[in-house]
Every structure is written in C-alpha cells, then in structure tokens.
C-alpha cells in the first residue's frame, strides 16, 4: 500500500516505522525541518505506564472563554459516562503493550538513547499519599509494580534530594523510564528510512480529500534564513540532507491510506474534513540545562526521574543534563502566566535539587499538544475513506511517548486491513466516533 503520514513527531515517526516494517511504501510529510521539532521536542520524557492511569489528583487546566464551553460540556459528560471506565482500561492495556513494544524495538534495533530506569513520585504530605493510594490500588491488578516508600527510602534512591525539604514519602514506579524522546524519534526515523520510508521535510499538508485512493495537497514551505527561537535552530541543520528537491507551489498526491499525526495542529485538517472532535490545545513548559559536576558532591541532581505529585512537575536526568517539565495550561496563557510557570519550574528544582543545574546554560521550551475532552487519544479510522487518526496521545491522563509504539503497531495492522489478532490490544471506542 502507499501510505502517507502527516507529522513527524513521536506519533508520526513510530507509525512510519511500523507501516514500513510491514512492507508498505511510506511517505512522511513534515512542515518543520526535522523530526520531533514540536510537541515531542523537549518533553519530560517519562514513559512509566503507571502514569498513564488516572491515579492521584491529575489537575486539568482551567479553560476560559465561550469557545471552550462545548469542550467543558463534553468533558463533564465524559466524567459521568459508564463507557469512560472501559475506555480507560483499554488505554492502560494499550500502554502496557506499547511499553513492551518499545522495549522490543530498543533491543532489536539496538537503539542507544539517553535514558534512566524508574520514576519516583514524590509525596509532600499524607494527604498526597491518600490521594495517590486510590490509583495505586488500580495499578496492582495489572502487574504494574508501584512501591510505597518512606521519605528515607526515597532519599536512598535519590541521594541528591534536598535534605531540608519536607517529604512525606513516595511511590517508586517500577516499569518505564525517563529519556530523550527527541533522540528516540531520530533513531526510529533512521530505522524507518532504512526500510524505505521517505521523509519530506519543510512540506506542509494543506488539504485532504477522502476516497480510494485518498488525495493530499502539500506545499514546500522552507523556513526563513534565520529562526528567532533558539530551540528551532536545529531545523536549519538537521534533516535537510534527505529532503528531496520539491517544486514550489501546491502539489497533489494520491495514497491508499493517509494517517494524520499532526499533534496540536490537528484541528485545521480535521475541520476541513468536517470532523469536529472536542479538542483543545494546551501547552506545557520545560527547562533543560547541563548538570553541575562537582567532585565533592557526586550525587548532585536526580539519578533518574522524580515527579512532584502536588505540583505536577517532573525533574529528570537526560544524559548529562537535567530537565524540569510541567505547567500544563491553556494555549491562550498570557506572557505573565508563562513567566510565572517557568519560575515555578525553577522553584521546584531549587526545592528538590538545589544548585544542581548550570544556570548559565538554561534552555526554555514551550510545547503544545491536543487534549480531547475525555482525556483519551483519537486512534483509528475516522469515517472518511482512506483517512486514519493517531492524535491527542499526550493529555492530562495519558502520556504520548509511552503510547506511541503500541498505537503505531495497532494502527499499522488496522490500515493493512488485517483481522484483529488476540496479541494486540483492543482500541475499540478510542476512535473519533465517540466525540465527533
Ligand atoms: C511540558 C511537556 C511535558 C511533557 N511530558 C511528557 C512526558 O513526560 N512523557 C510523554 O510521553 N509525553 C509528554 N508530553 C507530551 C508529549 O510531548 C506529546 O504527547 C507528544 O510529543 C505528541 O507527539 P505527536 O507526535 O502527537 O505531536 P508532535 O510532536 O507535536 O508532532 C506533530 C508534528 O506534526 C507536524 N505538522 C502539524 N501540522 C502539519 C501539516 N499540516 N503538515 C505537515 N506537518 C504538520 C508538526 O510540525 C509536528 O512536527 C509532554 C508535553 C509537554 C508540553
């Protein structure tokens, strides 16, 4: 089959790999100059499947304005739907399958990327522990190890934790890791290319026409000579080597299947297909800087990843760097709110690992993602011939990277028209049908 993938974030590259591995002729269209250049660029990189389950008190962003009323209504309705529990369970099964698939790929493709095992959830008070307990009870039947620890045990695992900081205890999530999502995406892209997948960078998809075959109009959209945002400088260097020379102006191509993996930018293409799921855009922030190396304090900084449950902020080790991420907020947040969120990330780092970051080389990042009203992804066919969705994986209750490899595998099977195998998780109901 000829398959087009739109978007080369973590969802797009893993889907490209799985489709190419099945022997399909794959073309990836990406408007930026490289893979993982938007929502997958500098995320926290946590993959523990336990975090994909709605445990503890996940905080939803407060969305204001009349335009958000429909979203709010659907969110309220989803919270009361009996189906929601069934879908959450399917999502967890998908996350477990995905975790196994990611491990398998890491082994078989000999992928070497910055990663550290385990995630320690930090609980500041007994109230935090009680809130987390409900979720922990849900994890155990799934064979997910989650060990409740005293403050002392937490400090044993993370000796760099500030001894002066009040810590009630923690939960060590066994499975999963924290790592460099962007680096993983680059490696998967390489593997997909070796299987014949083609990447068309600086190429924006403008419109889609469903059908058999489905049509796609794309346009070469080169970046300006200089980019103001330092996090985008790599676009001028990376990826261009294999961008085929493209004619200026719009061009139409036909495919047997088109898979939309456009992350936060999905709404425009969906609207043109007369699909209006209750999706909103949210954004989050991260700060990254080299770890300070002091011979007298070899334990400085985190060993792996910690997650401050009360503040919903993660602090993780990415190779020789530290990344602090959080502050999920509406995409319309003001400059003042942005500054205050970044300040709260710095504060969390100062609270837990004071002095561990080289503050002269801090990179700030702001990433957007799509959030469905019920917090679930949009996966599968979409009642438009030849068009498939792999969207909204990263939300308040689900994480994008840990679902990516599994969702990509299941989609590749579905697009090929193969009978659902018992080895694959059932994603019925996680498609757009529930909220279109
Ligand atoms: C602060 C923060 C922390 C996070 N922490 C974690 C975490 O710890 N673990 C985790 O798993 N997830 C985390 N996430 C979420 C995670 O980053 C996202 O779920 C994931 O990266 C989304 O991947 P994606 O491929 O769907 O979207 P993206 O990575 O945004 O990719 C979409 C791509 O589509 C391209 N595109 C869009 N429209 C078009 C078009 N018309 N034509 C061509 N190309 C197009 C874009 O340029 C982009 O490259 C975090 C997010 C944030 C903001």
What does this structure look like?
The chain has ten helices and 17 strands. About 30% of the residues lie in helices and about 25% in strands. It is globular. The chain is of the alpha/beta class and about 425 residues long. It has helices at about 10-20, 70-80, 85-110, 125-140, 150-155, 180-195, 235, 265-270, 335-350, 400-415; strands spanning about 1-5, 25-30, 115-125, 145-150, 170-180, 200, 205-210, 215-220, 250-255, 255-260, 280-290, 305-310, 315-320, 320-330, 365-370, 380, 385-390. Bound molecules: flavin-adenine dinucleotide. The site of flavin-adenine dinucleotide has 39 residues, from helix 1, strand 7, strand 11, strand 15 and helix 10.
What would you say about this model in short?
This protein is of the alpha/beta class and 436 residues long. The chain has ten helices and 17 strands. Mean pLDDT is 86; it is low at 63-67.
């Amino acid at each position: 089959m000829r398959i087009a993938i739109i978007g080369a974030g973590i969802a797009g590259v893993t889907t490209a790999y799985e489709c190419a591995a099945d022997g399909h002729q794959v073309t990836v269209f990406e408007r930026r100059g490289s893979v993982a250049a938007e929502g997958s660029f500098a995320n926290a990189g946590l993959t523990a499947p336990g975090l994909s389950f709605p445990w503890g008190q996940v905080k939803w962003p407060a969305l204001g304005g009349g335009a958000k009323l429909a979203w709010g209504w659907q969110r309220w309705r989803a919270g009361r739907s009996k189906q929601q529990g069934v879908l959450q369970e399917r999502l967890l099964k998908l996350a477990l399958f995905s975790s196994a698939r990611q491990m398998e790929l890491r082994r078989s493709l000999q992928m070497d990327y910055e990663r550290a095992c385990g995630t320690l959830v930090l609980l500041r008070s007994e109230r935090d522990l009680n809130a987390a307990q409900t979720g922990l009870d849900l994890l155990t039947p799934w064979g997910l190890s989650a060990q409740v620890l005293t403050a002392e045990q937490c400090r044993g695992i993370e000796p760099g934790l500030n001894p002066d900081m009040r810590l009630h205890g923690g939960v060590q999530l066994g499975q999963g890791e924290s790592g460099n999502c962007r680096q993983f995406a680059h490696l998967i892209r390489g593997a997909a290319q070796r299987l014949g997948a083609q990447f068309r960078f600086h190429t924006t998809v403008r419109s889609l026409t469903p059908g058999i075959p489905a049509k796609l109009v794309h346009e070469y959209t080169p970046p300006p000579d200089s980019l103001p945002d330092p996090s985008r400088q790599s676009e001028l260097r990376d990826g261009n080597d294999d961008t085929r020379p493209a004619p200026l102006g719009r061009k139409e191509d036909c495919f047997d299947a088109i898979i939309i993996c456009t992350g936060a930018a999905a709404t425009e293409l969906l609207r043109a297909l007369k699909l209006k799921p209750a999706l909103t855009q949210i954004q989050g922030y991260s700060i990254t800087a080299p770890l300070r190396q002091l011979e007298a304090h070899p334990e400085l900084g985190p060993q792996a990843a910690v997650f401050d449950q009360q503040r919903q902020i993660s602090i993780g080790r990415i190779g020789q760097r530290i990344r602090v991420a959080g502050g999920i907020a509406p995409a319309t947040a003001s400059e003042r709110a942005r500054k205050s969120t970044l300040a709260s990330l710095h504060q969390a780092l100062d609270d837990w690992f004071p002095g561990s970051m080289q503050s002269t080389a801090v990179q700030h990042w702001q990433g957007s993602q799509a959030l469905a009203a019920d917090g679930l992804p949009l996966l599968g066919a979409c009642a438009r011939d030849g068009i498939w969705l792999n969207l909204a994986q990263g939300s308040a209750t689900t994480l994008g990277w840990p679902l990516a490899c599994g969702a990509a595998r299941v989609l590749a099977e579905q697009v090929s028209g193969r009978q659902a195998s018992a080895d694959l998780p059932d994603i019925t109901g996680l498609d757009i049908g529930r909220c279109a």
